Structure prediction request, 181 residues.
Amino acid sequence: MRETAEFDDFYAGTAYRVVGHVYAVTGDLAAAEDAVAEAYLKAWARWSTVRGMRSPEAWVRCVATRDAVSRWRVWRNRLRAHDRAASDATRSVAETVGPDHVALVAALQQIPAAQRVAVVLHHLVGLSVAEIADEVGAPAGTVKARLSRGRTALARLLDPEPPPDGPTDRAPRTGTEELTR
Prediction:
């Protein structure tokens, strides 16, 4: 009985955040909810082990993300195979949320999965670089590189127009800088 109550409290306190994270990674709420449900089922089956981990929520989030990304790749490949412009799920999400949200989710779907996971965990879930490194099993330097590349890619995707030419803080390069040092 105690384990059931403990797991119920864990689920109630973390499920909303985990669904939000997985949705941000995949852009598909139904797929996110399915993946998170599967992850919590796996957590319950292994609760005696999972509850003793440093962060059971991170374990569930990692399992759900891997499952959702795998499902997302299958979905994306089917979509490409059938040469559709957009899926019904994307259309229904676009009808219920604002244009900035739709643009962000669409941009996230266009960057590599490792970068997408790092950006979502850092900026939407609020994890530190060290926590992300621990969760995804990569060195902190790799996580920093993924974050940097992901931010750069998102900036390009979300604001495709370069900034207008204007005054800069330094003089234009002439090519003779090395000679004058």
About this structure: The chain is about 75% helix and 0% strand.
